[in-house]
Amino acid sequence: MKGFADAPRGLWNRGFLSLLCTQFFEAASDNIIKGVITFAVAVGGPWEHIFGEGGNGIVGILFTLPFVLFSAFGGRIADRASKSRITVVLKTISLAVCALCALEFARGSAWGAIAALLAFATVSAFFGPVKYGMIAELVATDKLARANGIINMATNVAVILGTLVAGLAARDWKESFVDGAPSGADAWHPGIAMAVFVVLGFLTCLTLPRLRPQNPGLPVDLNPFSTYVSTLRLMARSPLLAVCGAWTFFYFVAAVVLLILPDYSSFLVIKDDETALLMAGLGVAIGIGCVLAAYLDTPARRGRFVPMGALGLAVAFALLGVSPASFAITMAWLVLTGLVAGFYIIPLQSMLQSLSGDEIRGRVLGTANGVSFVMGAVGSGLFYLLRQLGMPSNRVFLVLAVLCLAMAWVSSRWLRRLSGAAGTGNSGIVEVP
């Protein structure tokens, strides 16, 4: 079954534009709440005492739990029901979660804000396989790489915007603390900022075309782990499992990087909004790298792009790990990191979509999404462990450099032979009754 039209769709159709806008606002709102909490528990933050040294690693682990629990189940629902209808339901729920989040930040309740973060993460866990599965229904197969590149570019611009807004909101909110709690109008800044993007995301999702369910007869299974097991077995029949492993490694690395950077406020002796600029520079560069990789992508090149991207990440992380405490130098190496990251992630993401059949694509992407957050939790745990052992945050980049170098070597040996099959889509899997 196809999407809202049986004929192949051009890239810039109404459905894709609606999804692009909805994803943009989703990513921005998620990063505002996560960013404010991360700044709050980082070194010198008002909630630093709650988790102690490296506490943003604990927050990172908590954030991943809903994705691990619900991503595969969300993928099953995405296969069974209309992805556009699911999106409207999820965006409606986000309105209520946003109201809770605004209240908890205004009260200065750390645990209340974390509960709201988990609620946002739960909505995002269900939306993940929906949005990436929807791309393959809205655009033709030969446009997948470009669609992924554009979606990733928009997502990273949204992350930049959300991170910048989080830095500004966190600065005002933190400065408003009196006797352990925020006060005045500044106490509502995080909630107001989130509300703007959540409402816009709700409005744009209403313009999505009506999509048909791809597998309406799929049984409901409330056990999320059984869906992981069955889907991983299906993925093992093709190169999908290996591609999934390489794809999720990126999110292990990304989780560590996003935990390192908030501590740069202390390392570089700068304010939170300046640290947010570093994150913004990284996000812009990732977006540019994704678009470049998408437009240069061909099935024959994918096997070279992935190890090249991993090697580039290794070099960039090594430079970050040995650089002096300079804002300009740090920004330069972060931009390099982002540019090469696109050449790693976009080919792998296109392989995941093109290798999976229509009837199972939601579960494949949901399972991959869940595994990526398991890897993110492992990355958060690694960061926490290294910080507890006394390693400065900037030196953690050297550990990432070694790991990316290993991935470059591994991927150069086996991903190249998978790229041809992934590009044609002929080796895709479908569910066998």
Write a short abstract of this structure.
With 433 residues, the chain is mostly helical. It has helices spanning 14-41, 48-51, 55-80, 83-107, 110-138, 144-175, 189-205, 224-235, 240-260, 264-267, 272-296, 299-322, 327-355, 361-388, 396-414, 416-424.
Describe the structure.
- 77% of the residues lie in helices and 0% in strands.
- The chain is globular.
- Residues 1-8 and 420-427 have low confidence and may be disordered.
- It has 16 helices and no strands.
- With 433 residues, it is mainly α.
- The chain has a single domain (14-213, 224-424), classed as MFS general substrate transporter like domains (Growth Hormone, Chain: A), CATH 1.20.1250.20.
Primary descriptors:
single chain; Growth Hormone, Chain: A; 77% helix; 0% strand; globular
- The protein's oligomeric status is single chain
Find the structural class using helix and strand composition: mainly alpha
Low-confidence stretches: 1-8, 420-427
- How many structural domains in the coordinates? 1
* CATH class wording: Mainly Alpha
Largest sheet: none
Shape: globular
Following the backbone from N to C, one meets helices and strands in this order, namely: HHHHHHHHHHHHHHHH
CATH topology category name: Growth Hormone, Chain: A
Mean pLDDT across all amino acids: 82
Q: Count the helices. How many?
A: 16
Compute the number of strand runs. Answer: 0
